[in-house]
């Protein structure tokens, strides 16, 4: 065996044989020239087989492309199945009238009638506070003695005022 590579004991260190150099103690032959030749020959055969397979697939694809091109040419040369319908003739004056009528139409949906907005009744305010999971009675925090004002009701009335919701005259 004519070694090509040497490995040092159990390490990953590898050296290549050079002219005039002989590895010392601990260097073991890793690959011989005959092993490298056999491995490269085997890989070369695998690659040649893969190339042959790719050539066969390429030839098949080329034949499919040629058939598709021939079909496309045949379809282009064939007359259309249904003749294209001509646009009806509309005189210029008629087109101008049509454009004017379209321009006169509103571009948006017609305005919706305004919703009637009225303040909530005291019962509705109490129901709203309860729906929010709050205790109506905790809203009574007097600022002075005998203050009957509920803070939740004050908040609802402030929101109504900010949205211009007022009692109808």
Task: Please supply descriptive tags for the structure shown above.
3 strands, flat, single chain, mainly alpha
Apparent shape: flat
Residues in β-strands, percent: 5-15%
**Radius of gyration using CA atoms only:** 47 Å
Q: How is the largest sheet built, in terms of strand order?
A: 2-1-3
Helical amount = 40-55%
Mean pLDDT score: 78
Largest sheet properties: 3 strands, antiparallel
Number of helices: 4
Structural class by helix and strand composition = mainly alpha
Distance between the termini: 116 Å
Low-confidence stretches: none
Q: How many β strands by DSSP?
A: 3
What's the helix-strand series? EEEHHHH
Question: How do the strands and helices of this protein lay out in sequence?
Answer:
Elements: E1 3-8, E2 14-16, E3 27-32, H1 33-77, H2 92-104, H3 122-131, H4 151-162
Antiparallel strand pairs: 1-2, 1-3
Q: What does the model show?
A:
It is a single chain. Strands 2-1-3 form a three-stranded antiparallel sheet. It contains four helices and three strands; from the N terminus they run E-E-E-H-H-H-H. The model has no long low-confidence stretch (mean pLDDT 78). With 169 residues, it is mostly helical. 47% of the residues lie in helices and 9% in strands. It is flat and about 115 Å long. The longest helix is centred in the first third of the chain and has 45 residues, at 33-77.
